[in-house]
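hiii so um. not sure if this is the right channel but i have a protein structure encoded as tokens and i wanna go backwards to a sequence. like what aa goes where. can anyone help
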């Protein structure tokens, strides 16, 4: 995952250099991945990193990319703990379009999404799909940063809702402190329910 993270960071830095305006986030991530099918329940506590970038392509639209990578070394199955590594990577890449102008703008977003779960001893499996979401965000003339969104996610045989939000404060024109949440409440074709939630905190570089 460290190699994937380095590639993602270099990609964000390259995109930032080619964009007229935007931002790059480097964050610590902590959270959980739980699964339940009505009989058994699996819980994992996780930590890792979250890399994000946003790049304006016009006054009304921007490109966004994020790469969340977390891992756990312990699995709780029906209240009993077992040692074992579970790695989760979530990549999102898409376009957001503003619906209105003002101190707070509404936006619609369409994204490609890829989730990869790597379980020690069982190998990895990836699910590809898309996310459609609506949200609101504050504009750049305020020292405070905020946004939130909710959407529908479809990944191969998984579907459900996704939600997220961020809040931060600009220290100066180049840097800001930023924190947020990202969650997924999804279900597969076998009625297994997955609850994925992470909170993040870090630094945003503005340009």
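sure thing!! here u go:
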């Amino acid at each position: 995952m460290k190699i994937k993270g380095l590639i993602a960071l270099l990609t964000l830095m390259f995109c930032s250099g080619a964009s007229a305006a935007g931002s790059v986030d480097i964050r610590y991530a902590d959270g959980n991945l739980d699964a339940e099918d009505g009989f058994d329940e699996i819980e994992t506590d996780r930590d890792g990193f979250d890399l994000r970038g946003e790049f304006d392509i016009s006054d009304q639209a921007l490109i966004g990319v994020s790469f969340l990578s977390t891992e756990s070394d312990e699995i709780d199955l029906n209240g009993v703990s077992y040692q074992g590594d579970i790695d989760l990577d979530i990549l999102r890449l898409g376009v957001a379009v503003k619906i209105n102008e003002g101190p707070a703008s509404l936006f619609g977003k369409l994204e490609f999404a890829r989730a990869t779960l790597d379980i020690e001893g069982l190998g990895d499996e990836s699910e590809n799909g898309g996310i459609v979401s609506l949200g609101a965000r504050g504009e750049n003339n305020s020292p405070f940063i905020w946004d939130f969104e909710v959407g529908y996610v479809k990944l191969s045989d998984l579907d459900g809702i996704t939600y997220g939000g961020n809040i931060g404060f600009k220290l100066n024109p180049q840097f800001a402190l930023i924190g947020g949440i990202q969650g997924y409440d999804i279900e597969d074709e076998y009625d297994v329910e997955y609850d994925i939630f992470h909170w993040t905190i870090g630094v945003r570089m503005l340009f």
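oh and The longest helix spans residues 2-17.
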